[in-house]
Amino acid sequence: MNVVYINTHDSGRMLSPYGYDIPTENLKRFAEDSLVFTNAFCAGPTCSPSRAALLTGTFPHQNGMLGLAQRGFSLHIPEKHLASFLKNNGYHTCLCGIQHEYGWYLDLEKQGLHNMGYEDILTTDSTSFKKEDLHIWDKNNAEEVVKWLDNYKDSKPFFLAYGMHSTHRPYPIEIADCIDERYIIPPYPLKNNEENRHDHAQYMTTANYADQNIKKIIDALKRNNLYENSIIIFTTDHGLAIPFNKCNLTDTGIGVSLIMRVPQAASNGKVTDSLISQLDVFPTICDLLSIKKPEYLVGKSFVEIFRDNKIEINKHIFAEINFHTSYEPVRCIRTDRYKYIKYYDKTWNKINLSNIDESAPKTFLMKSGLKEKIKYTEGLFDLYYDPSERNNLLNDPTYEDILNEMRELLYKKQEETEDPILKGVLEIKKGYKVNKSECEIASSKNKDDYISL
After folding, report:
1. Tell me, what's the pLDDT at 373?
2. What is the pTM (predicted TM-score) of this model?
């Protein structure tokens, strides 16, 4: 079978297959013919670490992608990438649009895409577009994918990766005609005010543009009789680019859309609540294609879910943050019911403003005391009673045994995967571009120490 990997940027689960009033009806139609994962999570809620984890089947602290590719972080061994693996197993590999796990996706000349195993690179030039118009670049790339599919003659099966800038900021300026911003509500935990409604309307617009591109590709697969011979994966990298979502280990940060269609699977048209990490995608693809798994994979195959959507795969999943724009090492372990989060940098106890993308919601909160908000160093949350993770049970004696169990689970996973944070502060190597921490900024007289994302 072919493998088609379609991805968006910064979408979380804020899409119509997950119950939200977002104009993504084409994705919803695809979901109705696929398996929807309601409990899927990334391994790191920032762009490059998340994608690198999914596509190498290893944690960011194992594969080297501790931060953003355009800020000097890189994969230790690019050849462990899924594209390279499939190429070495007889697949024709093709990339169009975004990849963010090797170099900056808007600068093709500085990427080593062939090192990751891509043979055909269809990505069009982005330099003529303003960032708020990159949805047009996405459209151009989708059209290139369609041409490629219409003319594919190779006898080999293919691995096709199509990535979109949508729904990354900056959002399109003009609101789509299908959206009336009077009748929408901003995502949790944002205040429902005019500025935030407008911001969310812009998000909805870019999601709608992404949806149109998805339709183009699904239609091309069907038209060329490839749909019933292709494993199709739709996912995103992490939560929305709003405060307390992206770059957070709460479910609003690590929770992701994951919709997969396996031809003739019994679970198509269903949903599964099984706890899944994006790390599990690589080994699952291996099983679906009957290819021996490489030894370095750390995830579990969920191939059996396509037979029975109620099968449980994981007792817990692990996620991490190391660098986004600035240094902020955090780790979490999550079971179906509990979440434990631990911050490792004790030099600053307030919200890391640098690691929150600039936006209207952030501006509103900055005017309302965000700079003074204190963050916890450890958090324990009962997700059955507190799915928004706002009631920290760390000092509640009735949860003491659960706390100790979660701490132990986290530590065992870190030991097992040789997490370098256990040895102390992570090294900022030459070539890394890292903003000064909030603590350093507070003690500095240089206003340029803070560089917005």
Report:
1. 94
2. 0.95
